[in-house]
Amino acid sequence: WGTGSDIELRTVDVHIRRLRKAIEMDGAKDPIRTVRSAGYALEN
User: Fold this and answer.
1) Which residues contact 6 (CB under 8 A, 6 or more apart)?
2) What is the pLDDT of residues 3-23, one digit of tens each?
3) Distance of CA 23 to the CA centre of its chain
4) Cα 27 from Cα 21, distance rounded (Å)
5) Can you give the chain as a three-state secondary structure string?
6) CB–CB of 19/10 below 8 Å?
7) FRET pair for 9, CA 20 to 30 Å: which of 2, 31, 39, 40?
8) Rg (Cα) of the chain, in Å, rounded?
9) SS3 for 12-24, per residue?
10) What is the reported pTM?
């Protein structure tokens, strides 16, 4: 995003939480796995 961008520290976490909620509401299994000290991964 470069300097001067107004990005919150937890932006990705917020989007992941929203994705998980949408997936749950659809009745599907959550394919998003949290990888400690790295981020997130998608599972098959």
Assistant:
1) none
2) 666 677 788 899 999 999 999
3) 12
4) 10
5) CCCCCCCCCCHHHHHHHHHHHHHHHCCCCCCEEEECCCEEEECC
6) no
7) 31
8) 13
9) HHHHHHHHHHHHH
10) 0.72
